[in-house]
Please model this.
Amino acid sequence: MEPILRVIDLEKVYPGVTALKKVNIDFYPGEIHAIVGENGAGKSTLVEIISGSIKPTSGKIIIDGKEFHGGVREALQHGIAIVHQERALVPSFNPVQNIYLGYERGRLFVDDNKALQELKQLMESTGIHVNLRIPVKKMGEGEKQLVEILRLLRLKPKIMILDEPTASLSKDEIKVLFSILRKSKKQGVSVVIITHHLEEVFEIADKVTVLRNGKKVATKSVDELDENTLISMMIEQDIEARYPKTNIPTSEEILRLEHFKTSDVYIEDFVVHKGEIVGLAGLVGSGRTEFLEALYGVREILSGRIYLFGKEISIKSPRDAIKKGIFLVPEDRNRKSLFLRFTVKYNTTISFLHKFAKFFGLLDIRSEKKGAINALRFVKFDVNRLEDVVKNLSGGNKQKVSLGRWLLEKPILYLLDEPTQGIDVGAKSEFFQLMCNIMNQLGVGVILVSSDLPELIAMSDRIYVFKNGIIVDKLNREEFSSERILNSMLIGKNGYLKKGKEHK
Amino acid sequence: MNKSKNSGKMTIWNALGRYYTFLVLLALILVFSVISPMFLTVRNIINVLRQISMLTMVAAGLTICRAAGELDLSVGALAGFTGVVVAKLMVAGVHPLISVLLTLLLGIAFGLLNGILVAILGVPSLIATLGTLSIASGAALTTTNGKAIYSDFPPGFAFIGEGYLGIIPFPVVIMAVVVIITYLLLERSKLGRHLYAVGENITAARLAGLPVTFYRVLAMILSSFMASIAGIVLVARLGSGQPTAGGEYLMEGLGAVFIGMTAFKPGQANTMGTLTGALLIGIIANGLLLLGISTYIQEIIKGAIMIAAVIAAVYKEEIRI
Model:
């Protein structure tokens, strides 16, 4: 069979870094082709080039025997459509307006009704259902993703590209998506999918291409592979222990909560000891993030007592928390933690500038630099990159900066919210290695929120399961089992909140 | 993607990107001095500096405001209003020093109003200050009944506008002080770092433990405060309180800030950039005047040059408002 899409000697060079190096891949019709690799391996760059939004530095793309010279419109004319990793929707438009953007129905005036009818048919035939009447900005991430997938399907492309489509979808939604992909495949569509979830590769893909540092490692049929081989192809060194849990004796109590209540959560009692990682399991919206943010002073604490080393404290703002040595490493670091256009040094010292301020608040640049270097050494960040703009760093390095900020002062308790989200396998492992080092040396406690259950089980000393704003289950390390945790997360006894702000 | 740059080494293109606005300024100086022998004389240069002194004070305040992520459209009207107030106070027999202090206090109060609207009530600064612009210009017209206030101001006060320190006009001295303080504040102080943090990512700033609301209010206050200084100097210079004076400082001040965002620290409002922008505006006006080009056409050329300067930066995706 002839390939429908050929990528030949594709190269993309950015100032200072080569994102793709002489990549050759053939894609065939009626085939699902997964592309995997660590963050920064070049996956997104590759599909952005194929879909016409980035120009390659050199190399060729042949579609159906004809050379493709780039451009988003041209790609669409060639039958290539993509769901980008970053949302490409107009927030104030409803799904109909978004999906038909550029393809509006009607002659003189836009006829959204006609589009609506068409779209209803499409939803019927695909089994993907979204609310068509509300603007997409009011939708959750999962539903937005479904809108993008509908847009892709409506275009009836010959080559379908999906860049991490499952990241924000529920299990059921993923099932629907996969059945659609299988159907498209049967109709002869060539599907290209990027994913971080290797189990998905084995579930859906026929072939898989592994990229590493911008180079193609191999393209293989999925039947020839297993998960460990795939991982070892993705990363340079064989990671023996992906989760380097070290047993740190837990003794002294750091934090104790009694009847801790906010508008979203109610915690009867909660304890963290020195050198201990307390894992919080739960679905998105179960109150884990809200709990951390309340403890950090972002959300109002309505009642209850907080004891730090046995002394009662009050936390009304992040400032209060920081003064006590309680530091939050928030989820979604690009939005909640980092100042993307500023330098690594700037991002590292921003919370503790008073340490470097002399008369009139003027900063002692030299001691600031020293402080930043010391903190960043701790997290093994390359200190030669102190003046690099954070925007240009990889996910793992961004997370190091995000954590490094909290090493300028002595930490007591770290609140880690999805710390390994969007960073690759190697960097995940390194992150926890660093965390364990810090805990060993400084004797801090950690509250860890993670949706990655294997990670949570590997790293935690105890796990509390959240559901609807309360703790529905507590497990000690010897009791850990994914079945029990999942069970409690999904069907644990009824929570503090049923809907909205209805109090118990 | 890991698009790291070798920021340690500055390439020539990198440098050109950062300083081309500055180079344009130098080129203009060169061109004008070739065309007009009058241009590159000490007297003319001092003249230009005096011309732009008040504009630069307003623009310095706007730079701080912009660093914190806000815009302040009320500065021009406020300069007019505070000018009228200081004149009126002195006409009423209040000691000039007290008059100036009271007027500055009024400016601070006005900034506090802007700050409360923006940071506490959550009105977008563009809209809030459009409203207070109208309030300030209305207040200026009401206090004066729409007429200018002429009076012989005390010599001490007139010195602010007319005096010299050596050969340097006093408004230029005030401008220099304002620029130096703004520079130290934004570039070298904790406060400046925090203001930039709030402007870049307000959520991250809050979670980093910064008192975000305080800084936003402060940015609006400093902007109003510097506009008030400009308003006072303007009256001292004109020798009269004009209710509608100051209006042009908004447009030119914003122009200086935006041109400035193309230089030194591309994409960010910064003091040296703003000063470059103000100089550019001043030199264009002065050069065109020496060439005998009518002020009407000057306006067109000024607008075109500002757009051209910003296009380059926008093209490199460095400016976002």
